[in-house]
Write a structure and sequence with these properties.
heterodimer; A: mainly alpha; 4 helices; about 0% strand; globular; B: alpha+beta; three-stranded antiparallel β-sheet
């Protein structure tokens, strides 16, 4: 758990120190990418708690989800339906909360609170 | 507290998540810094400067009429300054500082009303170049005094595009533009209608884009005097005079 918090802090620090920013037009992509990353993180924690974690599944899932989300945003931009990115946001959002619930339950079981 | 088999891949994605959040934060911070205020600040500056200009113009007009009063008084005192005073009036009239009346023409240039589907809306507007073309044609026709929407054309008058408006002297004007010129009505009309670019307004552009363009002769119209300041900073008589 500590390693993950440190990793998150490291990423934030790196980003803030380099003060790297993207063009305004990319903000939607960035938002979807953040959601995809949160989803992947929670999914990863859940899988490790269930002891079914697999590097290949995890990384390929993270990449394909992010790319598909970016593609949906891109298509939405092209065909003039900006709101298409909401599809990705809703899907990721739901998964984030589902995974969060699963992680919570798994932790309870592990700590013997159930 | 939690001893699960953490994988490098999971740690890596956490680093990526942190990076993404930081980048999003940087971007929104940059936006918040750059965006608000600037354009509204500029609008404020323009508005305050415009009201300042109006005040100064009013004061200039007051001072000028005061000066004219004093000159008149002085002229009544002695015969010598009387002739000077008449000379001054004549020069002032030639420079465009006083209102003048006489026969002439009135040209009205208005934007087209209906923009056809898919057409360039710019084609349906009156531009600074159109006004300049008409003014030049009127001068060719021997106009002695010209005003555009109450702005007298003098030697230092610019006619140029300023966003959605046209700048004449220091006033921003909008359609319709009423151009009044004092001169021989017949030759003024001929000059405008025979001018290469001004005549297009009355034929091709009028028919094609529905511009509201008219030209009417008048036996008596009044052209206002120049209200701006005339205070040369650099010009002086040639030969190094003071």
């Amino acid at each position: 758990m500590l390693a993950l918090v440190l990793a998150l802090a490291l990423g934030v620090t790196l980003g803030l120190l380099t003060n790297f920013s993207v063009p305004v037009a990319w903000l939607t992509y960035l938002g979807v990418a953040v959601l995809a990353a949160i989803d992947a993180c929670l999914g990863g924690i859940k899988a490790s708690l269930e002891e079914t974690f697999d590097d290949k599944v995890f990384v390929s899932g993270f990449l394909t989800n992010t790319l598909m989300a970016a593609f949906i945003v891109f298509v939405g931009d092209r065909i003039g339906v900006r709101e298409l990115y909401l599809a990705a946001v809703v899907a990721f959002g739901m998964r984030v909360f589902e995974n969060l619930g699963d992680v919570r339950r798994l932790l309870f079981r592990r700590w013997g609170w159930e | 507290m939690l001893r699960a088999p953490y994988r490098p891949a999971l740690v890596l994605v956490f680093v990526v998540l942190g990076l993404l959040i930081a980048v999003a934060f940087n971007t929104t911070t940059r936006l918040a810094d750059a965006r608000p205020g600037r354009s509204s600040d500029l609008v404020d500056v323009v508005q305050s400067m415009e009201s300042q200009r109006d005040e100064l113009q009013d004061r200039l007009a007051d001072l000028r009429s005061e000066l004219a009063e004093l000159e008149k008084e002085a002229a009544e005192d002695s015969g010598v300054s009387n002739s000077f005073s008449r000379e001054l009036d004549r020069v002032r009239q030639s420079a465009g500082l006083s209102a003048v009346s006489g026969p002439g023409v009135e040209v009205v240039l208005g934007d087209g009303t209906e923009v056809a589907q898919g057409a360039d809306p710019n084609d349906y507007l009156i531009h600074d170049t159109d006004i300049a073309a008409v003014v030049n044609a009127l001068f060719v026709g021997g106009a002695e005094a010209i005003e555009v929407n109450g702005e007298r054309i003098v030697a230092t008058t610019p006619i140029r595009c300023a966003g959605t408006t046209v700048l004449v002297n220091s006033a921003r004007l909008g359609s319709p533009y009423v151009i009044k010129a004092v001169g021989d009505p017949t030759s003024l009309e001929t000059a405008v209608l025979e001018d290469e670019s001004a005549s297009l307004l009355f034929s091709a552009y009028k028919n094609q884009y529905g511009l509201q363009v008219t030209l009417s002769r008048s036996s008596d119209l009044t052209v206002t005097g120049y209200r701006g300041s005339m205070r040369p900073q650099y010009v002086r008589p040639p030969g190094g005079g003071a």
